[in-house]
## 1
Amino acid sequence: MAEEESRHIQVSFHSSAEKPIPGTEDAVIDVPISADWEKLNTLVNSLATAADDEWKERRFELLIGSTFLRSSLSEFIQENHLDFERVVKIECVDGYDPPQPHLSLNGPDWISSVHVTPSVYIATGFDGSVTVWDKKGEKISQHSREESAVKGAAVLQKPKGAGVGGLRLATGLENGSIWVQEWAADGTVTAVAALKGHARSVEAVRVGVDGTRLISGGFDAHVKVWNLTADASDVHDAPKAKNEKRAREEFVTKTPMVTLAAHSDAIVALEWSPHQKERAFSASWDHSLLQWDLELAGEVSRIRAQRGFTSISVHPSTGLIIGGLTDACPRLYDPRSSEGSFLKQSFIGHKGWVTCVRWTERDDHSFVSSSFDGTVKMWDSRSAKTPVYDISGHEDRVLCCGVGEGAILSGGVDTKVNIFTF
C-alpha cells in the first residue's frame, strides 16, 4: 500500500455535458494510483469548487473507456491492460442514485409482465390473471378472462383518477386470444373487445401513441395490425354469462386489418417506432429484428443477430434499441446505421438468459434488464462491462421488468412483483 501511495499517474477529467465542469478543462493532474472512485470524486468537486464559488457538490460516475471505475486506479489499469505512462482520460457522468426497495407484492402465479401508471401497479400471470394494486400495495382487483396464460400485455388507457377506474388493458393469451378490458372504479372488469386472428400463443402486444392501433405477434410468426376504433367489420357479441349473478357483457369481436409474414419463428417482442407512427419493430426467435412499414405492409430493414431475441425496447428520443437475447448479454442496436454493423455494444454482467429489457425515463443512457440469473440490473449504455447497480430480491428466475413513474418493477417464477424507486 505504501508503494501505491508513493506511485502516481496522470489523469484528466472531462464531461460530455453541455456545460463543462469548472477547473477541469485542459487540466492534467498527478494522483496516487491507489486512488479510487471516492477519492477521485472528491478531487473533481474540489477542483470545481476552487474554480467556481457557486459550485454545488455532485456525485459522478467515472467512466474510463467503456467501463465505470469500481476499484482503485491501480487495479483498474492492471485488469484492463492500460499504460501507466499515459494520461488516463476520465469522463465524469452524473451519478445515479441507488434504487430503493419500495414494495414486494405477491401474485397468484408466475409473473409474465409488469406495468405501472400514476395510480396503480399491474401484473399479468401464467394462470391467466391480471392483478392490480394501488400505490400503497393494496390489492384492488384480480381477474381472469380465460383459463389461459397471459403472455403479453399493454396499457391502452391509464386510470382517469387516483384509483383504477378507466384503466384499459390489452392482454395476449397463450390460446391465441387478445382481450381488451376496462376497469371500473370499484375494480370490476368488463370486456370491450376480443381480437381474433392468431393461430397460436400471443407473446407480445403494443398500442400506438394515439391509441387507435394495436400490433401483436406470437408463436404463429405473424405480426397483426388491429384497428381499435369502431369499424364496419366489428361483430357485436353478448354471450351468456357463465355465472347468472354476473351481468351479461357486450363487446365487439375484431379481425386484423393487416397480417405481416416475414419471420420464420415465434415473435416475442414488438415496439412502435418513436419517430414514424406508421413504422414498428418485431423481434423473433429466428435471430432477426425487423422494421416494418405498416401502411405499405412491407419490411423496411432487418437486423440479424447471433441468437434468438427475447425482448426489445426502443428509446423514445434517440431511437436506439436495447435487445435481450437467449444469452447473458443485453445489446445495443442502431437501426438507422448506414455504416458497418447495426450492433453498437454488448453489455457484460448477467449469468443467465436476458428475459426483458427496458429503457428508463432518467436520461438517454439508462436501461434495466432482467435475467434467468434471478437479478435485475441497471445499466448506463456508455459502460459495457459494468452495470450501474444490481437489484436483488427475487428467489428464482426473473421473467419480466418494467419502468415508469420513477419506479422499476420486476416479476418472475417466485410469483413476486418487486418494486424499487429511483
## 2
Amino acid sequence: MEPGQQRENPLGSGEPESGEWREESAAVETGERDDTLKNRSGDGGNEEITSKTENTEQYEEELDPRIQEELEHLNQASDEINRLELQLDEARSSYRRILTDSARKLNAQGSQLGACIEKARPYYEARRLAKEAQQETQKAALRYERAVSMHTAAREMVYVAEQGLLADRNTLDPTWQEMLNHATAKVNEAEEERLRSEREHQHVTQLCQEAEARVQTLQKALKRVIIKSKPYFELKAQFNHILEEHKSKVVQLEERVAKVKTRYSVALRNLEQISEQIHAQRGRIRAARERNRARGGRSSPVGAESEGVIQSGVYAGLLVTPPQSWRAKACLQASRRDSQLTTDESD
C-alpha cells in the first residue's frame, strides 16, 4: 500500500469509518478536557473565586462613602493650611520690613533733632500712661454699672418673692420660700460685687487724675523741647499704629492656621477609625468563612463564600437573619453537590 492511501473497511466488518473515528476521538478529547477542568475547579477554582470575592469585597470597602467624605475634608484642610501659611509668611515678612524701616527712619530723625528727644520723652511717656489710665477708668465704670444693674434685678426678685409669700400666707407654699432664699443670696452677691466695683472705679479714677496732672505739669515745664521733638514722636506714633495693625493680622492668621490644623487632625483620626473598622469587619468575615469551611469539611463551592458569611449572621459587623429564600437556595445547592459526589463515586 502506497503512502498517503488509507485502507477502506469492507462493508459489514464492524470497524468505524475514518470520519467516524475522528469524530469519536475529538469527542473523547473534549470529555477529558471537561473532566480535567472539573477536577481543577474543585480546588484551584474555589481559590480563584475566593480571591476574586475577596478583591471585590476589598474594592467595595475602599468605596466606603465615609472615606471619600473624610478625604475631601482632609484635602480641603490641607489646601487651606497651605494658603494660610503663605499669607502668614507674607504678613510676618511685612511686619519685619516695617519694623526695620521704622527703626531706620526714627534713627535718622533722632540724629537731626538731637538731645531734645530725650528731654521730651518723659512728657510723651506720661501721656501714654494717662491714656492707659483713662481706658482702665472706662472699663471700671462699665463693670460698676453692670454690678448696679445686677443688684437692682436681685432686689426686684426679693420683692416678688415677698409678695408671693404674703399672698399665700395661709398655705405657706415652699416654692415662694425657696425663691425668696435664692433671691436674697443673689442680692448679697450683687451687693458685694457692686461695692468692689465701686472701690475699683474710685481707685483707677484717682490714678487717671494723677496721670493727667503729671501730663499738665510736664507740658508746662518742657514746652520748648516738646514742640521741637514733636515730629519725631508723631512719626513714632504712626509707625506704632501700623505695626499694631500688622501684628494683629499675624495673630489672626496664626489662630486660623491652628484651627485648620485641628480640622486636619480630626479628619485624619476619622480616617484611621474607619480603616480600623473596615479591617475588623474583614477579619470577622474571614473568620465566619473559615468556620463555614470547617463545618462542611471541604472547600466551599463557587459562589458559596458570601452565602456562608450571610448564613453565619455576620455582615458589616451586625447580626443578620437571612431570608427564607437564601436558606432554601443553600439547601438546594447542598443537595445538588451531594448528588454530584454520589454520581462521581459510582463512576
## 3
Amino acid sequence: MEDEDVNNNIDETESNTDENEHTVGDDREDIHETDHEDSVDSFSELRNVRKKNPCNTLISYLNINSLKNKFFEVADILYDKVPDILFLSKTKLDDTFTQGLFSVPGYRVFRNDRNIHGGGILCYVKSTLPARRRQDLEFSAPFESLVLDLVINDRKWAIIGVYRPPSVSDDIFNTLFVKHLDKITTMFDHFMIVGDLNYNLLDQQKGKPLLDLCDVFDLTNVIKSETCFTKIGKPSLVDVLLSNQPQYLFSPINFDCGLSDYHNLIGILVKGKTPFLAKEKVQYRSFKNFNESDFNQDVNFIPFHVAYVFDDPDDVYWAHETLLKDVVDDHIPVKERRNKTNKPAFMNCEPRRAIYKKRMLRKSYFTCKSSKNWEKYRKQRNFVTRLKRHSLRVYFFERCHGGPKSKDFWPTIKPFVSKKGSKDDPTINLNEENTIVSEQKQVCDIFNEYFINVAKDIESSNDNDFDDHSSILKIQDHNNQPTEPFDFKPVLSENVLKDISKLQTKRLQG
C-alpha cells in the first residue's frame, strides 16, 4: 500500500510534467437548465441518480489526489447542485490556498489540510442542510478526517469522512480508530464512515483489520465492487462506505469520473427528504414596451395639486409619490425573475467534451493495457490540461484587461489574495423542538419573537438588588458631577455657506 501512495505522487508529477419556493423544481432547476448531454458528461452517472431521486440526501466521496489542478471539473457538478455532501481526500492544500479559491455559491466548505505534498481532506455541504462540523470528534493524527453532525428526517447522523495513509500500521488503526469510533457511537445512533482506508476488502487477509472493525461495530459496507485501479496489480476495494444503519441507505454509486489517478467516485443516497434551496427572486422594472413620449405626456397630466389638500407634509409627500408611482407602474411595470447562478465563463462545453474523451480513453487503457492505448490517453490528458489553462487565461484576461479600474477586476482577483474572498451562503437552519426550520422567513420570525421578548420578564424574574453595585455607584457619581449647561450657539447663514463652499464635490465626505 505504501508503494501505491508513492505511485500516486509519481504519476501526478509525471502528469504535470507532460502537461506543461420550496418545490423540487426550485432546488433542482439548475440541473435541468444546465443539463449536459450524457455523451459529454463525466458525471452522468451521478446526475442520473440525482434526477431519479431529487428529494433524498446524496453523499459522495472521491480520492482526488490534488484539488488545485482539478477544481475546474469538481465545480461543474457543484454549480449544478448535484451532490448534497461531497468529500474529497488527498487535496494537497495548505493555508496559502485561501477559502475563496474553492468556494461555490450554495455550499459551505470545511477543510482539514496537511500540506501541498500530500494528504488533506475537504468537504462541501449544501447550505440548506442542517449540518455542523464536529472538530471535537475528529480523528487525531495520523488519520485525516472531518465529522459532520447532520439531521435527516429527524434522525441525527454522524457523517465521517476519513483518509488513512498507507503508512499507518494495523496496531495504530486498531487502537486509535476504535477509540474515536467508540466516542462517536455513544453520541449517535446513526453514523456513516466514507473514505479511503487503504484496506482491500476483496482480500480477506489484507482487509482483516477493517473487517474485524466492521464485526465489532456491526458495520456494513454498501460498496461491493472495485474502486481502485492501479497500473500494476489487481483492482482493489479500498474506498468504502460503512454504516451501522444500512436500511436507510440505497442506490450505491461507484464509477470512474476521470479525475483521480486510480480511484472511482463512490456515493450513496440516504432515505429522508432534504430541505430545498428556494430560488432568490429579483424584482426589476421592464422597459420592453416603454415609450418615452407617452410616458412624458402622462406625467404632465398628473394632478399633483390635489396633494395639497393635506396639511401634513408627510401626507403631501405620500400623495405625490402615489400619483407618480401609478404612472410609472403602467409604463414600466415591476416584474420578478429568479436569480440564476451563472458558472464562470471558462467552464464551457469545449473543455467538458475534452475531459469526457480523456475519461473514455482512460477506460480503454485499463480495459486493454497496451502502449498504443496509453499513448492516446496521455495525449488527450495533455490536451485537456492545455485547454484548461487557455480557458483560464482568456477568462482572466477578459475580466482584468482594464486593470484595477475595471468593475470585474477585484471580484476576480480577491479570492486569490485575501481570505475574505469566500462567499459562504448565509442560510440559517434552526432546530426548534426537534423540528428543522429551513424557511428563512420562519427563521426571521423566530428570531424576532425571541429578541422582542428576551427582556420581557427581566424585572419580575430578577430578585437581586443592584442599588449598591459598583457600576451603578460609579454612574451616579459621574452624573452628580457639575457640568456646563447644554446650549445652542447661534450660527450665521454666511458661516454655513462658507463651509459648504469648501466642500469638494468629487471626494467622499466623512
## 4
Amino acid sequence: MKESKKKQYLILIFILGLILFNYPVLGMYNVPERWLGIPVLFIMVFFSWMLLIVLTFFVTKKGSE
C-alpha cells in the first residue's frame, strides 16, 4: 500500500475514534441497562477501542507487505 494511502486510512481511523469517544455518542450508551451484568457504556467503549486497534493493525500490516 502506498504511504499516502496508508496515511489517509490512519487519519480516517483517528477521526472515527474522535467520533466514537465524543460526548454525543457516549451519551447515547449511558443508560441504566446492563448486558450480562456489564453496563452498556463499558461494552461500547471496549468494543470501539478494539475496533480501532484492529483497523489500525490491518492498515499498518498491509503497508509492511
